[in-house]
Amino acid sequence: xxxxxxxxxxxxxxxxxxxxxxxxxxxxxxxxxxxxxxxxxxxxxxxxxxxxxxxxxxxxxxxxxxxxxxxxxxxxxxxxxxxxxxxxxxxxxxxxxxxxxxxxxxxxxxxxxxxxxxxxxxxxxxxxxxxxxxxxxxxxxxxxxxxxxxxxxxxxxxxxxxxxxxxxxxxxxxxxxxxxxxxxxxxxxxxxxxxxxxxxxxxxxxxxxxxxxxxxxxxxxxxxxxxxxxxxxxxxxxxxxxxxxxxxxx
Length: 250
Hints:
Blueprint: E1 2-7, H1 11-27, E2 32-37, H2 40-47, E3 56-60, H3 68-77, E4 83-88, E5 104-107, H4 113-131, E6 134-139, E7 142-147, E8 151-157, E9 160-165, E10 169-174, H5 177-184, E11 189-193, E12 196-199, E13 203-207, E14 210-213, E15 218-220, H6 223-249
Parallel strand pairs: 1-2, 1-3, 3-4, 4-5
Antiparallel strand pairs: 6-7, 8-9, 8-12, 9-10, 11-12, 13-14, 14-15
Keywords: Phosphoprotein
Pfam family, one: LytTR
GO molecular function, one term: DNA binding
């Protein structure tokens, strides 16, 4: 999920840009969470102890109190690695944007939907590159990305694959389960059933003929897959225990 901060003291602008961000994220099936701030001070106070949580920051430059450029400098001084996009009517500040490694400078009321979309997707792509380990897919002509760590399992029905991720969220694409299994095995994904590919860390409990996941969902276990699944889970737990022991020793 991308954590986005929208900082502007103009409520109408906040509403407009939030709508654009949601529309683009929905179009490309990108999970997001937006936080709203009416000042640079409130944004900084909210994230001063957790700069790593920020992915994209949309900043108005001309705000009362600490302006957008000073806010960006303060974020960078505190090791914020988020992608910064400036939103403003003041074109004269464009050259200052390079100082804080902003990826784009958008002039209010003079930015088309397509340009806003390109900038958002550019920021998302840079975040994916930074974070790594993202699952990408395409469905009905649109591309989507989901952090692999958030995927609990894949389910397939007649080549239509459903990704189950986050808190009860889903998205779909057409694919092949065997190819998925081969591609994702290095991320601790394994077949529990011919129609289900699960991520081992999400297993909470083995029950008769089914798995209970930490999300509260139940996934069936096929006879053919039961023993390999149990062995893989035992191996995963064993490796985790060894890792924890090493960490404790350190």
